[in-house]
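Reminder to self: tokens first, then the designed residues, so the page reads top to bottom the way the pipeline ran.
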């Protein structure tokens, strides 16, 4: 019992150290975003909220935020529509090559993002979608769909197929059984996958740099461009807002998964 206690305590300490190592660099951004000066320096000459006011009022930042929201919501919806039936087929289907199909779908999770960006650039350029918002939505949907698929597969792992058989025995068509029985029970997994897909799209910058023009620039791309063009504390303020939004969404995704784990 005592050995188990110390094993849990050591595991928690190590987890805390790893999290501190990963998150400590992000904490530097917060005081930089609150400086009253015009440069990204520490320590700053004073404290001010003016850079947050600039980000939330400047049309350049607001347009980029609007593009990120449109692309994120569009790619999330498409990823969920593609991943949900694919997850059902891979979880319950009995066909040759099922494991190979799962590995093929999960390829974007292991490939370097630069390779995906170059491939997306070549494909959408030949399709005439380069520089369009639709092309970026399709590319981000392909990037995030495997994550949604894996999340839904985890939810389906504990699903009782007897419920679907009972619905069929009562005369429910397959689509009705899917909508009234299956979907409500796996909804937390679907929603968690959708949130993660939105965060992936909202934070992605490499593919967006290849596929978008100045009119379709997303918020991460504006931040990245600002680091090369003009170093301003507004970049730090936008980064802090982006980190907070992503953290809140990921916490929501974890909360949705917790009842399923219990």
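Designed residues (262 positions):
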């Amino acid at each position: 019992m005592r050995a188990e206690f110390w094993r849990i305590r050591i595991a928690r300490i190590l987890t805390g150290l790893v999290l501190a190592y990963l998150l400590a660099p992000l904490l530097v951004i917060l005081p930089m975003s609150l400086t009253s000066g015009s440069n990204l320096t520490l320590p700053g000459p004073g404290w001010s909220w003016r850079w947050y006011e600039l980000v939330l009022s400047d049309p350049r930042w607001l347009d980029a935020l609007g593009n990120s929201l449109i692309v994120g919501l569009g790619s999330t919806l498409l990823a969920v529509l593609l991943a949900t039936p694919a997850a059902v087929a891979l979880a319950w289907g009995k066909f040759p090559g099922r494991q190979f199909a799962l590995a093929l779908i999960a390829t974007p999770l292991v490939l370097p993002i630069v390779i995906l960006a170059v491939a997306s650039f070549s494909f959408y350029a030949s399709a005439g979608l380069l520089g369009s918002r639709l092309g970026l939505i399709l590319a981000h949907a392909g990037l995030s769909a495997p994550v949604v698929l894996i999340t839904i597969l985890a939810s389906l792992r504990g699903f009782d197929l007897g419920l679907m058989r009972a619905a069929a025995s009562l005369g429910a068509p397959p689509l009705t059984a899917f909508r009234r029985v299956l979907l409500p029970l796996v909804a937390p997994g679907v929603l968690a996958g959708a949130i993660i897909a939105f965060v992936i799209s909202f934070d992605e910058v490499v593919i967006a740099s290849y596929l978008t023009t100045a009119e379709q620039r997303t918020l991460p791309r504006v931040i990245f461009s600002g680091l090369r063009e003009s170093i301003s504390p507004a970049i730090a303020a936008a980064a802090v807002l982006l980190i907070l939004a992503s953290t809140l969404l990921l916490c929501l995704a974890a909360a949705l998964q917790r009842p399923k784990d219990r």
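The mean pLDDT is 83.
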